[in-house]
Amino acid sequence: MTTSTPAAPTRRQMITAGGASVVGFGFDLFDLFILLYVASTVGPLFFPSSSPTLTLAATFASFGVSLVMRPLGGGVFGRYADRHGRRRTLIVTVGGVGVATSVMGLLPTYADIGVLAPIVFILLRLVQGLLVGGVVASTHTLGTETVSPRWRGMVSGLVAGGGAAIGAVIASLVFLAVSAAFPGEQFAVWGWRVMFLSGLAASLLSLLLFRVVEESPVWKAAKQEPQAAPARAADLFAPERRRTLLTSLALVVGGGAQYYLTSGYLPTFYASINEVPPGPRGLLLVWTSLAILPAALLAGHLSEKYGRRPICLVAGAVNIVALPLLALAMAGYGPTDTGALLGYGLLLTVLANASYAVVPIYLNERFPTRLRATATALVWNGGFAIGGLMTTFVSLASPTWPTSPAGSRSSWPPASRCSWSARCSRRRPAVAWTATGRRRRSRRPPLRPLHRPLPRPLPRPLRRRPETWEPTAGPSSSPARRAGSAAATCTPSPRPARTSSPRTSPRPPGPGRRWRRRRARHRRGVRCSSPATSPPTTTGRRSSRPRAPSSAAWMSW
């Protein structure tokens, strides 16, 4: 099969592709973060209840509904990205997310239209989750496929951590501006609507940037292969890829749980447990979001030097111990302890976001080009959906303890989330350790590929008896072969007649049954090419069945 070599991208292509991936993913997370910032305000308007806890839980349940739709959107738009390109998928999904978010700001509340308000709100959240899942299929592949191999780790951290940081920072700045423009009760009337309408402006800015972005050269090279058969979605669940798919999913589940536990829950933590006012709360969230970017870049750079697996090992082991303790300690401070709240918030966000900064490039390196967008989107969205829903269920199952020093719910529900997430993430180092099958000895592993054609299915071995060989000149058969005599000339002899009982038939002459079996498997239909060359004595596996190509076949550039 002829392989098309992807053209070397220019510096402008790498910058625009990496920037489009970061900005696209960041603005889509901005649309999701808006609900987290206004959850305490929107909850009573769409899900009124006598219990504030149930109202807040219903609001976060609408957030969980969008998480459920993200894997479906990843599968649908992932196939679209694998067939029609990453750039086209990015434009369609980012524009759709902006429209769905802006429509939420125009909805009437429960007091206006009754039960129809929460139903329409949840339907829009479903559409938003479907489109956000499709954004991952393009943003997590376009940048890493375009940049130089030496920068893939940093681009992975920039997309995963930097995109989250950009989305959180923009959401925090918009929240600060809107809170200042609509103080007090006015925020519950108009402020939250302006927050949702700002999502349309973010999508329009993203579409202006996407106009100058070119398609991934790796994807274009894969499309130009004349003999490459089109990949099917069922190929992703083939037996040789099943283990890679499951281990990658387990790796993302831990990162998703930690992300929603820290960056996703931190605005509500500051508001409900620490009772920080909106103005100082917005400043705290801005600084904690800015700290994500250097931590993610550092984790991506270290993955190029030491490998992807050691970074996952170290980050997972540290977070198991650190995250529950930080959540318990942070709940003991009030709204005036801004220095302590800032320090704990920085530690929580840095540790959690650095742990999954390597995941996008890890997923890209495990799947071929014609399945990469589908596989990456399914694994990423599925893992984050399971991780996000896990934290939501644990929060609902946690009891309401006596009030904390801050005057609200105690720290046990978020701490129980931390411990539950840590139990899930305990498997992340083991998964990362066994993902490649063995321990890597080199401290600087070779870069994994992002482009390799799909292999053809291996032919099944022929079920026939091999020829028996007799020398026509020279000494006897066995000593001539052991001594490597050049005088022996190999000529096929007719097959012996098969008796009625194959098990009791005499053993045919020749160099041995094992050698004949290996020769029939490896050199089928080939006679001795030279009279000076005797059949070699080889060593190998006993099995006559060919080994199926493993997932590591996609990793050599």
TrEMBL record:
Spans annotated as Disordered: 431-557
Q: Give the compositionally biased regions (Basic residues).
A: 437-454, 513-526
Where is this protein localized, as stated in its record? Cell membrane
Under the heading PROSITE patterns, the entry gives: MFS, SUGAR_TRANSPORT_2
Membrane topology term: Multi-pass membrane protein
Name the UniProt key words of this record, in alphabetical order: Cell membrane, Membrane, Transmembrane, Transmembrane helix, Transport
- A single Pfam family it belongs to is MFS_1
| MF terms in GO | transmembrane transporter activity
Segments passing through the bilayer = 20-39, 45-68, 89-107, 113-137, 158-182, 194-213, 244-261, 281-299, 311-334, 340-363, 375-396
Q: Name one GO cellular component term.
A: plasma membrane
Major facilitator superfamily (MFS) profile domain mapped to chain residues: 17-440
Please note every region of biased composition (Low complexity): 473-504, 527-557
Database matches in SUPFAM superfamilies? MFS general substrate transporter (SSF103473)
Give the InterPro entries listed for this entry. Answer: MFS, MFS_dom, MFS_trans_sf, Sugar_transporter_CS
| Name of the protein in its database record | Putative MFS family arabinose efflux permease
Source organism (scientific name): Pseudonocardia kunmingensis
